[in-house]
Structure formats: C-alpha cells, structure tokens
Amino acid sequence: TQLLEQSPQFLSIQEGENLTVYCNSSSVFSSLQWYRQEPGEGPVLLVTVVTGGEVKKLKRLTFQFGDARKDSSLHITAAQPGDTGLYLCAGVRDSNYQLIWGAGTKLIIKP
Amino acid sequence: SQTIHQWPATLVQPVGSPLSLECTVEGTSNPNLYWYRQAAGRGLQLLFYSVGIGQISSEVPQNLSASRPQDRQFILSSKKLLLSDSGFYLCAWSGGPQGLAYNEQFFGPGTRLTVL
User: B101–A31: do the CB atoms touch at under 8 Å?
Assistant: First the structure.
C-alpha cells in the first residue's frame, strides 16, 4: 500500500504553461519534503513544509502543505525546460521520524 | 560544507558475482545513512538505514547486506547478484541543521548497476 500517492505520474507540457503536482495521504505527517531529481543524479531537496496550511515559494515554484498535514501540492508557474525532472514528495511520520516516499511525478517541459 | 560520495558511478556485473558499493560522507559527524534502490523513472525503495557504527536496519529482505565500519562510511554488498538487483543505487545522509524530526536527506550521485 502506497502511503503517499503522487499525481499525475507523468506530465508533458509546453514551455510557459502552469502545472500542479499533488501528494496525498490518509496519514498525518509532521513535515513534508519535495525533491527534484534529474536523470542519472541523486534527488535534491527543494523545500520542507512543516505547518498545516503553510505556503512556501521558490521562484516560480509554490509549495503548499494541507491544513490537516495529510497532503501537499507543488505549483509551477510559466514552466521552463529547466524544470524537467522527477519530482518526489516525502513525508515524516511523527511516530518514528521515518521518511515515507511518494512514487514520483515525471515532468517534461517542451520548448 | 557536507559532501557525499559514491563509487563506482556505473557497474556491469554478471549474475552470481559479488557486489560492493561504497558511500562516504564528509563534513558532518554521526549522520544517519541510507541505501535506496530506484527503478527507472520511479520512486525510491529504502533498502537499509544506519543510525551509528555497526547499527544496520533492513527494510526489505533480499540478497543484499549493508555495513557501517566507520562513522561516515556505508557499504552495500552482495555475495551473489541476481538479475533483479539491477537498478540505480543511491546513498543518502540525514542529520542536518533541522535535525532528525525533519529527516531531510541529502543524496549522493548514485551508482548505476546492470546485472547481465
């Protein structure tokens, strides 16, 4: 059973479009992280959200943590080819601080 | 600053041969260390994690093993590789400024293993 569901699994859009990636769970997390991974490299941490309802912005990327701390979203405005990659969400459970990973969203931005 | 190294970067091994992948971390002490495997374009599968020297927890029963002979060294091994062991192996550490509660992980460059 996948505790963190990411959607969509795959997304291919044109440069300049907006997009949203979702990370959903029935479990509560004490914090949630988003990573981006380029082919042949390790994932790189983008952001950590901690408080329910929290919104963080990283240039054209906006991250939101759900009020109940069970879900999160990543919104990209005016996507660029450099945004191409695999986006992974990961949640920390209060009980044991283990990191639960989503299966990833593969994003392709076409010039 | 902290850095994490993995080697080799790529490896092609025959079925039944042994395996040793190494990971070292610089610039931090007493990190939590992790081995993950990743299928092409997909999420991460946690294989092993370690909270200290000689302390290894296994998440998935298989023919792989891990060891932590030194504080900042983590080794992934196998006595006999299977075809299904092919994949992208990632080492990560945590224990950064935000501490264990956030468990933010920092990854090495990975090893691409192909078993033929």
Answer: yes
CA of B102 to nearest chain A CA: how many angstroms apart? Answer: 6
Strand locations in chain B (E): 3-7, 10-13, 19-26, 32-38, 44-52, 55-58, 64-70, 73-78, 87-94, 105-107, 111-115
Cα separation, B33 vs A55, whole angstroms: 30
Average pLDDT in chain A: 93
Residue with token string 């639960």:
A100
* CA–CA distance, A97 with A83 (Å, rounded to integer): 30
Residues of A in contact with B46 (CB under 8 A): 99, 101
Spatial distance between the Cα atoms of A18 and A15, rounded to a whole number of angstroms: 9
- A-contacting residues of B 54-83, CB under 8 Å? none
Give tens-digit pLDDT for B2-35: 899 999 999 999 999 999 999 999 998 889 999 9
Inspect the interface and report whether the beta carbons of B110 and A41 lie closer than 8 Å. yes
pLDDT tens digits along A39-59: 999 999 999 999 999 999 999
Taking an 8 Å cut-off on Cβ atoms, the answer to whether A41 and B100 are in contact is no
